[in-house]
């Protein structure tokens, strides 16, 4: 080490630059760089924080917007369901007197024929009328048409899975009139 090297180290030290007399640590080097460029580091840090805040705000806004759209969608679906329920109630109200006329018909051949006509009309007015399907199936069964009766009982069960009268009569038909016993057993198990 010469006097000139010492003079260079002193000048470097005073200017905040690395000195040659000994190596400085990486942490100290970064601190010195920060100390020399405080304004640039402050501007960069501010820009990064502003970008992070803008991204956070945008994410929150998008999330709230999705929530508003979800609520609006639910409200629209609820209104559609309410209108469908009102239409269904109106259709059932129109079909019910026809259903009752069929239900009150006598249990003779002519009464069964008229009852089937009434139940068919009730089903035309309100296709989701499970009870009309089941009662028409009972009349088909008493007239000796097990295939038609079974179709009506199946439809009644599809429309109202908890309507066990239809399951009962479908089971009777399956046990008495079906040739494929394995298929009948499967269907009876599913009922």
Account of the protein in words:
This protein is mostly helical and 191 residues long. It is 83% helix and 0% strand. The protein has 8 helices and no strands. It has helices at residues 3-14, 26-36, 38-104, 109-125, 130-143, 146-159, 164-177, 181-190. Helix 5 runs antiparallel to helix 6 (146-159) and helix 5 (130-143) runs parallel beside helix 7 (164-177). The N and C termini lie far apart (101 Å). The model has no long low-confidence stretch (mean pLDDT 83).
Summarize the structure.
The chain has 191 residues and is mostly helical.
Tell me the layout of helices and strands.
Layout: H1 3-14, H2 26-36, H3 38-104, H4 109-125, H5 130-143, H6 146-159, H7 164-177, H8 181-190
Helix pairs in contact: 3-4, 4-5, 5-6, 5-7, 6-7, 7-8
Number of helices: 8
Assign an overall shape. Answer: rod-shaped
- SSE pattern, N- to C-terminal: HHHHHHHH
Oligomer: single chain
Strand content: under 5%
> Averaged pLDDT, please?
83
- What is the end-to-end distance? 101 Å
Helix content: over 70%
Derived structural class: mainly alpha
Radius of gyration: 42 Å
**Major β-sheet profile:** none
Topology, number of strands = 0
Low-confidence stretches: none
Write out key terms for the chains shown.
191 residues, 83% helix, 8 helices, mainly alpha
